[in-house]
Design goal:
single chain; mainly alpha; 16 helices; about 5% strand; coiled coil
Length: about 450
C-alpha cells in the first residue's frame, strides 16, 4: 500500500528523480526567458521613456510584475535547491525523505511574500496576505501569467517603436523637401492651400511622433483581449514564452503619406508649368494673333460685301476682347515674378478663352463672307449651264443667249442683287430643258435645285 502525505501519494525514488529532472529543465527555460525579457529592447526603452496614457498605466503594473517574476523565480530556485539537497543525502532515500521530497516537489512548501505586490496578490489569490504557502506548480502558473502580461506590454511597445518613429522621421524629411519645392514655386502657408496643407501635415506628423514615443500602446491593436493581471490561462514554459499577436495602427501615418503624395502631384504640375510657361504663353499669344488677323480679314471682307452685294444685311465684325489682352499681360507678369500657383489657373483659362476667341473670329468671317460665297456658287452654276448649252447645240439660240447674258450681267455687276441673279440663273436653266434629253433634264434639274 502506497504511503500518502499532505501532498498526496508519496513519490517513489524514480518518480522523484523524474520530477526533479523535469522541474530543473523547466527552471532553466524560465531563467532563459526571464533573461531574454530583461534584455528585451522594448523593456529598456520603456524604463527610460517619459510615458503617458495607456502605456504609462500598463507599464506601471508590468514593471512591478517583472520584479515579482524575479522574486518568484528566486523562490522557485530555492525550493528546487532544497529538494535537490534532500535527494543528494543518499542514493536510496528513506521513506521519511521520500515524504519530505514529495512535500517539497508537490506540496505547498514554497513561501512567497504577498506584500511584494499587494494588488497583484489580491488578483491572484483573493484578499492580500503578507505571506502565502503555494506549490511549485502554482508558482509556475503565476510566473507564466505575469510573464505573458509583461511580455505583451514590452513586445507591443517595441513593435510600435520599431514600426513608426523612423518612418515618421523619413516622411517628415520628405515633407520638408516637398515644402522646399513648394516655396520655389511661390507656395507658402497663408498664401496657397497647398502651403496650408503642408503646414497641417507637419503638425500632424510631429504630434503623432510625440504620441508614439510617449504612449506606444495607444497605437497597438491586439488580436485578442490583452492579458489581465492575475488571470491564469495555462501553465508550462511554452505558454509563458508565447507573445500576443497584434498589429501596429498606422492609419494616421498612412493618411499623412497619402495626403503628402497628393500635394506632391499638384506641386509637380506647378513645376511642369514653370518649365512650360513660356511656350504656353507663346501659344496663347499666337492664337490671339490669328484671331486678330481673322477679324481683320472679316472686316475687310465686310467692306467688300457692302460694296459688291446689294440689299444684304451684313453682320458687324466684333472687336478684340480687351479684358483677354489684359489677362495675357497679367499672366506675363506672374510668369516674370515666379508666382506659378497663381499663374496655373489663369493660364488654363487663357488657353481656353484664346481658342474660343479664334473660333469666334472664324465664325464672324464665315458669316460676313456668306453673300460672296453665294455669288461664287451662282457663277459656277451659270458656267456649268453654259457648257451644257454648247453640248446640246443651243448655245446660239437667241433666247438662251439673252437669258445667259442677263444672268451674267447681274452676277458680274456691282453691287450684285443676289435674289435677281439667282432668278436669272434659274431662267437660263429652264431655257435649256426643251433641248435636253429626259435623263439630262433630270440631272440639270438637280443642279438647279
Amino acid at each position: 500500500m502506497a504511503l500518502t502525505g499532505s501532498a498526496g501519494p508519496v513519490l517513489s525514488r524514480e518518480e522523484v528523480d523524474r520530477e526533479l529532472a523535469r522541474l530543473s529543465a523547466e527552471r532553466e527555460a524560465v531563467e532563459a526567458a526571464l533573461l531574454a525579457l530583461q534584455d528585451h529592447p522594448g523593456r529598456r526603452l520603456l524604463e527610460g521613456a517619459a510615458l503617458s496614457g495607456r502605456t504609462e498605466e500598463r507599464w506601471s503594473v508590468a514593471a512591478q510584475g517583472l520584479s515579482l517574476l524575479w522574486a518568484f523565480f528566486d523562490r522557485y530556485s530555492e525550493a528546487l535547491a532544497a529538494a535537490r539537497a534532500v535527494r543528494s543525502r543518499r542514493m536510496r532515500p528513506s521513506s521519511p525523505e521520500l515524504a519530505e521530497l514529495t512535500e517539497l516537489l508537490r506540496g505547498r512548501a514554497v513561501t512567497v511574500s504577498g506584500g511584494q505586490l499587494p494588488d497583484a496578490a489580491r488578483q491572484l489569490t483573493g484578499p492580500a496576505r503578507l505571506v502565502e504557502q503555494i506549490s511549485l506548480t502554482e508558482l509556475m502558473d503565476r510566473m507564466n501569467t505575469w510573464y505573458a502580461t509583461v511580455l505583451e506590454v514590452v513586445g507591443a511597445a517595441d513593435a510600435v517603436w520599431s514600426a513608426l518613429p523612423t518612418r515618421i522621421d523619413l516622411l517628415l524629411a520628405e515633407l520638408r523637401r516637398v515644402a522646399s519645392l513648394a516655396a520655389s514655386v511661390g507656395v507658402r502657408a497663408g498664401a496657397h492651400p497647398l502651403g496650408d496643407e503642408l503646414t497641417r501635415l507637419e503638425r500632424e506628423l510631429s504630434t503623432l511622433r510625440a504620441e508614439v514615443l510617449a504612449d506606444p500602446l495607444a497605437l497597438w491593436r491586439p488580436a485578442r483581449v490583452p492579458a489581465q493581471r492575475g488571470t491564469e490561462y495555462g501553465s508550462g514554459v511554452a505558454v509563458a514564452q508565447a507573445t500576443a499577436a497584434g498589429a501596429v495602427d498606422t492609419e494616421r501615418f498612412d493618411q499623412a503619406g497619402r495626403a503628402l503624395d497628393n500635394v506632391r502631384v499638384e506641386l509637380e504640375q506647378l513645376l511642369r508649368l514653370r518649365d512650360e510657361a513660356d511656350e504656353r504663353l507663346h501659344q496663347v499669344a499666337d492664337l490671339l494673333r490669328r484671331a486678330d488677323a481673322t477679324l481683320g480679314e472679316a472686316r475687310q471682307a465686310r467692306g467688300e460685301v457692302l460694296a459688291k452685294i446689294a440689299a444684304t444685311e451684313v453682320p458687324a465684325v466684333p472687336g478684340p476682347l480687351a479684358a483677354l489682352r489684359e489677362s495675357v499681360h497679367q499672366a506675363a507678369e506672374l510668369r516674370q515674378s515666379g508666382q506659378w500657383h497663381r499663374l496655373a489657373p489663369l493660364l488654363d483659362a487663357l488657353e481656353e478663352q484664346a481658342a474660343r476667341e479664334l473660333s469666334r473670329a472664324r465664325q464672324s468671317l464665315t458669316e460676313v463672307t456668306a453673300p460672296l460665297a453665294e455669288r461664287a456658287e451662282l457663277r459656277g452654276r451659270l458656267d456649268a449651264y453654259k457648257a451644257m448649252a454648247a453640248r446640246l447645240g443651243v448655245a446660239e439660240d437667241p433666247e438662251v443667249i439673252e437669258r445667259y447674258e442677263k444672268a451674267r450681267w447681274l452676277l458680274w455687276s456691282a453691287p450684285c442683287d443676289l435674289r435677281a441673279a439667282a432668278a436669272a440663273v434659274a431662267r437660263f436653266q429652264q431655257a435649256l430643258r426643251p433641248a435636253a434629253a429626259p435623263q439630262d433634264a433630270r440631272r440639270y434639274d438637280g443642279q438647279g435645285d
